[in-house]
Each structure stands twice: as structure tokens, then as C-alpha cells.
Fold:
Amino acid sequence: MAFCAICEMSALGQKRTCAVHDPMSALPPKADMCSALGDVRFGPKADMCGAKVYVRLALQSGHRGTCTPQYTCLKLDFMRAPLPPDGSVLLLIDLQKAIDHPSWGERNNLSAETNIARLLAHWRSRDWPVWHVKHDSTQPNSHYRQGQSGNEFKPKLGPLPGEPVIVKHTNSAFIGTNLETRLRSGNHEAIVVVGVITNNSVETTVRMAGNLGFATYLVADGCFTFGRSDWNGTFRSAEDIHAMSLANLDGEYCNVVTMASLLG
Structure:
């Protein structure tokens, strides 16, 4: 029994066989070029060969290797493409005045807001989609609670007229919101994430975005966090927590990128 792999270029309506792999063979599966955008690999993790490419795997039966019509569709995970495609959604998470309250403690990435403002200008100048996530906390002691100044957007980072605002009440921008519906109805397959805090709402949203099949890019110097003690009581700096959060996400749920790589 072997596998017949067909690479379907949904954007162009083209099909071609990329590789045939016999799972009984000791040799690794052969990966052919599927398009100019990259290779196809078969194994525990499949690399992307284009922004709108599907691989159909079908069991081969008989000595002639005829593919049966029972196909299993696998949308390739294209988070492994090094940079987001033009027109990706820029998603800004929880960039509100509450994050400046001194009770948070010492933070890292002091230039994050400046970096995000530059990225915003870059996106807006190209008329690419910019979406804002706003946290309306339901906790009585939260500085993000509605009706206080902390709930307002930070200066220069708030929405312009026409830019969507997704209001959330939990850590994830996908829970209890229409974010996923908006992305899918607009055929948005890739998102670029900035905001706060790295190991909380940012990480939660990025994990869900990756699991939902969106190509997700997290800007390392476009988010920040705060120092805190770990489970054993050892204090960890904001930079250590930030770096570990990025390490947990990169290559598994997203691609971690930098401002320099996005702005050239």
C-alpha cells in the first residue's frame, strides 16, 4: 500500500502529482517542487508550497497503483513561510492605557509602541487590513474594565474610522467574538500579531489562530510583558518570560518575526 499525493493549486486551478511515497519503504518520501513558492514535504509536519495549496492524500490499491477516490484533504500549514504575504491582517491586541499602570511592574521592549506605530503606518499606507482587539474586562478590579481611562486605546495606536474593533472579555481574541468569522468571510488566511502581554492574551490568541489553521506571524519586538515569579517562587525577568513565550510559539503555532524583517 502506498500513498498518492496530489498538489492542488486552488488559486490557479492547476493540479499535478508532487510525490508518491510508499510507507513501507525505508527511504524518505520524495518532495518535488509544487510551485515557485516552495516545496511540499510529507511527514509529521507538512511545509507550505503556496498560500492557497491543498494536498490530497489517497490510498493506492492494486499493483498498478491506481488512486482510490476516497481522498483525505490536508491544508498545508504555511506558518513556516518566513514572512507574511502582502495584505495580511495586522491584529493589535489589548493596546490600551491600562497596560501602563505601575502595578504591572517592570516590562521589557520599551520601544514596542514606537515599533507598532511604524508598522501601523506601513500597513495603512498600503491599505492593508488593520484590526484592533479591545479588552473589556469583567473583573471589578481590572484596569481594563469599561468606564475608566485604562479601557481607552493608547495614543497613536487606536483605530482609525473604518478599522474593525473586536471586543473580547477573555484572554483569547477568538473566544466570544466574531474574529474567526470575520477572517474566514473576508478570505483572510494570514495574520500578523502585535500587542500585550506576550505570555497572556498574545500567546493565547496566537495559539488559537495556529490551531484554527491561520498562518500566524508574531512580531517579537511588537509585544512585551512583565516580570513575575515562576511556580517555584523564583523571579523571572520580563525579558526571560517574553523569550520563553516566543520559544513556545515559534514553529509550532506561528512564525516569530521581527520589525526589521517586516519593514525591510
